[in-house]
Amino acid sequence: MGDNIWQNPVVWGLGGIYGLLVVAALVVCGLCKSYPERNYSELIDRTRTWAVIITMVAIVTVMGTGAAVLFFGFISFLAFKEFLSIIPTRQSDRRVLFFAYLVIPIQYWFVYDVWYGMFSIFIPVYAFVVLAFLHLLTGETKGFIKAAGTLQWGLALTVYNLSHIAYLLVLPLKDPVVAGGAGLMLFMLFLTQFNDVAQYVWGKMAGRRRIIPSVSPNKTWEGFIGGVITTTLMAGFLASYLTPFSMIHGFVAGAVIAILGFIGDITVSAVKRDLGIKDSGKSLPGHGGYLDRLDSLTLVAPVFLHFTRYFYG
Predict the structure, then answer these.
(1) Whole-Å CA distances, 211 to 28, 85, 112, 191, 237
(2) What is the total count of domains within the chain?
(3) Which residue range(s) make up the domain with 133?
(4) Fewer CB within 10 Å: N-end or C-end of the chain?
(5) Domain for residue 238, yes or no?
(6) Does a structural domain hold residue 212?
(7) 270 membership: H or E segment, kind and range
(8) Whole-prediction pTM value?
(9) Domain for residue 297, yes or no?
């Protein structure tokens, strides 16, 4: 992150996030003391998990690009593994799944090598062709479309889309800023999670009209609109500190993050509804599984990267 680490906006940004975490922890402690008869175990678990997540992101960000790419590659591995654990698979597809896992290190190598051409087409073109062919070699035609399509969709969601987070770290910019790629990454990650909280809070305070009750009964138009406005304003404020964006582009980026974060959230909710499960796993206490925490980012990350690359790359 450079010699003058304390002059880097990313360090101050991480410090601000830790400050918010401390405030949240104090609020939880206050609630536990004020209302001891209530059960706050889930809220406590959620806060502790956030502390671990934020610390891990902070460590790999400070360590540099290589460590961060490895970290996000591992996150994709965990998310893909979790995805495969909740979907039905055929016995004949076990060998195909092995080769699907090999896609992960190859994709992230293209990120580390800053090979944008292969990074952008490897999974949707080459992995698509090879894995479809491997499915054919099993000789099992019953359930072929479902098996092949589900695997490709899972790779796109958990590996291809999420790898765009890591590519932000190496994205060449026309006019480099002090925060660099780490600033872009922090900007996107923070606003995506901030939007989740903002939509939840607005929904609790003013939510009346449900958007898609059959998919996500707690999502309301009031929560969605309130979250979009709040996230857009926050993005405009943070843009000049962490990104090369103008204020206008900061506002646009905030709106894009808020809207796509919502769509990513309900998309994964639809998957869980289809499978008849509440959470994708139990790996993150208070949050559920990895997909439960990454759902918004699966759609935000690729669009945010291409937005940034188009205007500033």
Answers:
(1) 30, 29, 40, 22, 29
(2) 1
(3) 66-170
(4) C
(5) no
(6) no
(7) helix 247-275
(8) 0.93
(9) no
